[in-house]
Amino acid sequence: MELSSRVTKLLNIKYPIIQAGMAGSTTPELVATVSNSGGLGTIGAGYFSAERLEKEITYVQQLTDLPYSVNLFVPSDKLFIPEKVEHMNAWLKPYRRALNIDEPIVNISEKQQFEDTIDMVIEKGVPVVSFTFGIPNQSILTRLKERNIKVIGTATSVEEAIANESAGMDAIIAQGSEAGGHRGAFTETSSNLTPLIGTMSLVPQIVDQVNIPVVAAGGIMDGRGMVASMILGAEGIQMGTAFLTSEESGASQLYKNAIQHSKETDTVVTNVFTGKPARGIDNEFIHKMNEYNEDIPDYPIQNQLTSAIRKEAAREGNAQWTHLWSGQSPRLAQCSSASTLMERLVQQANQLLNQ
């Protein structure tokens, strides 16, 4: 079994390792280091304006001439409901008062921002674009493909994987429920929840139903996870939390420490921070918000309502009032450079494959 696969050929990379596009925590240094080490670094551009993305891409291009990726959030069609926002603002008032911050102005121009960032990735000749939270419309995918930009979709169920393949994606990230941060889900189960299928269960079921390459994601932190995924039929892996504690990551020291001092039972899937289900380390804000007995505003509205609270709490070193996204394998997190992590991964995988 080789470390080269359809994924390495498709993305023109040496090793089938993708660093996840962790919005808010990737840096040009992290992206370039992963790419320079033979993997695919990803700019987490989910919250970026086109201007911010242009700066980030320019910087990455100065640090590497190898392929890299940009990860974008597909806009939602959720409605802005003023009463929901009013009730949530009343609930969040004590936090804002304690942190001495103002109530934010909600901006719902998500679609325009998305279209501007698509224009930017085309203009800058980005080699690979991956999508989370859904599938962009066909005209966008056609424009990207006409420029020979590779497109990767995210799926948390077989149904979502089939939809991604039908739309013309070049590869699929099969995101298991162990994954840290936001669920890439865009469908709901019969009980109105996003799918929560574990990586080891999800990967072979998706592989059996689609013809395009599958990349395993969720809870993978080392060469063992990589080899296990590939034995199940994945042709590559995507890792987020493993890179989050690397030296080049944009995560704060508070955040890195929280991951390194957590255990596998400490994470929960919650929508209280952003309005979308995401896996993070349990804390006081989540507990308090679980007492809120009305509907939480949808993403991106809730994200905007809590954003300043989370940023200020993190700045003040208060881990109880900010989001701490993490996958289910925090005990395997290590603090090293991203290049050392890549080296270790490949070495471990090769050892296991050649036993």
Number of domains: 1
Strand elements, count:
11
Helix content: 40-55%
Q: What is the third-level CATH name, the topology?
A: TIM Barrel
In round numbers, the mean pLDDT is 95
User: What is the H-and-E element order?
Assistant: HEHEHEHHEHEHEEHEHEHHEEHHH
Low-confidence stretches: none
CATH superfamily: Aldolase class I
State the CATH architecture: Alpha-Beta Barrel
User: How does the major sheet shape up?
Assistant: 8 strands, parallel
Placed side by side, the strands forming the largest sheet appear as 1-9-8-6-5-4-3-2
Walkthrough of the structure:
By secondary structure, the chain is of the alpha/beta class. It is built from 14 helices and eleven strands. The model has no long low-confidence stretch (mean pLDDT 95). The chain is globular, with a radius of gyration of 19 Å. Helix content is 41%, strand content 13%. Strand 8, helix 9 and strand 9 form a beta-alpha-beta unit. The chain has a single domain, classed as Aldolase class I (TIM Barrel), CATH 3.20.20. It holds the Pfam family NMO.
Comma- or semicolon-separated keywords:
355 residues; Probable nitronate monooxygenase; 3-stranded antiparallel β-sheet; TIM Barrel
Summarize the helices and strands and which ones pair or pack:
Elements: H1 6-11, E1 17-19, H2 28-36, E2 41-44, H3 50-63, E3 68-73, H4 82-99, H5 110-123, E4 128-132, H6 138-146, E5 150-155, H7 158-167, E6 171-175, E7 181-182, H8 199-207, E8 214-217, H9 223-231, E9 236-239, H10 241-244, H11 253-260, E10 267-270, E11 278-281, H12 284-289, H13 301-315, H14 338-353
Parallel strand pairs: 1-9, 2-3, 3-4, 4-5, 5-6, 6-8, 8-9
Antiparallel strand pairs: 7-11, 10-11
Helix pairs in contact: 2-3, 3-5, 4-13, 9-14
